[in-house]
Amino acid sequence: MVSEDIEAQTMISSVEDTPKAVKEWLAATFTKQIFGRRQAIEPPKFRSIVQAVRASMYVDKITRKTSHAVPVDISPSVLMLQEKLNCWDIDVFRYDSLTQNKPFRGLFAEVLNRYGLVKRFKINQYNLENYCALVEQGYNVHGNPYHNAVHGADVLITTHNLITLTGFASWLTDIEILSLLFSAIIHDVEHTGTTNNFHICTGSPLTIMYNDRSVLENHHISTAYRYLEQADCNPFDKLSKDDFREMRGIVVEAVLGTDMSAHFTQIKNMQNALFSPSSVNRNTAMTLVLHCADISHPTNRGSCTRHGLIISWRSSSNRATKRQHWASPTLHFATDRRPLFQKAKLVLLTSSSYRA
Fold it and tell me: Is the pTM of the predicted complex or chain greater than 0.85?
């Protein structure tokens, strides 16, 4: 018993910043030194009581500090992600403006953190920021009015919401989620602002390189992986060889699936698969998710959609001008009718995807 009293007195003395009156009260109440004999009902262990007092004092100290602390300065773009990232109608144009036309650097890291992927795959934050900077530059290298960094950010956010709000993410593995999100951010990098048919009919260098097959989509994938080879620009350098190989396979298939020539084939395959859910191919499902996100902009509400359609029309007009410049019979299309056709096409394709 004497040893317990000695220990009690020692612990009382060790409590930092404890007023003398409190120490005397503790000693008088909970040690044998004052009472001379133990109570009939055994009191709580002295160690737990001292710890409780210590915790109470710590909480009080933290409360006093925070009540006088200067509020953390959160940038408007970060605040917008915190409040709106999981919303279908997030205004990606406003977000791009808040980030001064650098939407990927904060956005991609935030999305990855939502799934715990940065910690899971030991993603290098410094390399991630460098890589996002390269992707931003790549999207804007051709001055593309539609397939630029804003579009890439929009597709990334939509992909995130499609797999999160629908519960699809719970069906995927971590490496599949990482692959799908990476596919979203790079799916149109260095887009030339023209179609695959334009490249094929004009015999462009990209057509020669990729043998007329999904010319732009192959170019986007190749460009994205070339960026990873630059110094301090590979955020996935800690991935195992198996994970990296699996990730690349998913990325290649998903981005190639954004080729509009495969749109109705994808819809038909998925509609058939719905009658037999157990037979659904995982890669096919992920490919369709990315494709839906890629053409989803007309489904957004309000000014964001109107802004997107106006930009899309400008992009169409630019393509029509290039066709006239090349003066190829196979590329001829009336410039003044192109915007109307483009709007109808967007609505038709988007509605058919979301009905499926």
Answer: no
Amino acid code (one letter) for 119:
K
Interaxial angle between packed helices 215-228 and 125-140, expressed in degrees from 0 to 180 and rounded to the nearest 10: 150
Identity of residue 110: E
Helix axes 2-14, 46-67, angle to 10 degrees: 10
CA atoms within 13 A on the CB side of 20: 0
Tokens 């060790």 belong to residue: 14
How many residues are listed for the chain in this entry? 356
Q: Report the alpha-carbon distance of residue 61 to residue 225 in Å, rounded.
A: 51
8-state DSSP, 40: S
How many whole angstroms separate alpha carbon 224 and alpha carbon 221? 5
pLDDT digits (tens, 9 = 90+) for 62-95: 455 444 444 555 889 999 999 999 988 889 999 9
- Output the CA–CA distances (angstroms, integers) from residue 259 to 88, 157, 218, 253, 317, in the order listed: 24, 20, 10, 11, 20
Cite the active site residues.
147
Asked if residue 114 lies in contact with residue 174, where contact means CB atoms within 8 angstroms, the answer is no
> How far apart are the C-alpha atoms of 136 and 132, rounded to whole Å?
6
Contacts of 162 (CB under 8 A, 6+ apart): 168, 289, 292, 293
